[in-house]
Amino acid sequence: MELVKKLLLIAYYFPPDGGAGTQRPAKFCRYLPEFGWEVTVLTRTAPLRQQRGRWDPEDESLLHDVEGCARVVRIGPTSDPGETDRWSRALFDRDPTARWIEPAYCAARDLVIRGQVDCVLITMSPFWLSHLGRRLKEETGVPVVYDLRDPWALDGWQPQRTFWRWRREMQTMRLTLGMANGVIANTREAAHRIEETCPDLAASLTVITNGYDAEDFRAATGAPPREAWHDEFLLVHTGTLHGEVLYSTNRLKVAIKRVMEYSPERIVPSGRTIAHLLAGLRRLRDEGREGSERVRIVLVGPADGGTVRCIRESGLADAVTCTGFVSHAESVRWLLRSDALFLPLHDVAPGERSLIVPGKTYEYLAVGKPILGCLPEGDARDLVAAARLGYVSSPTDEGEIAKAIDRMLCDWRAGRFDACQQEAWVRAYERRQLCRLLDTFLRGVLVPHCGKEGQLKGHVG
Question: 338: domain range?
Answer without folding.
Answer: 214-413
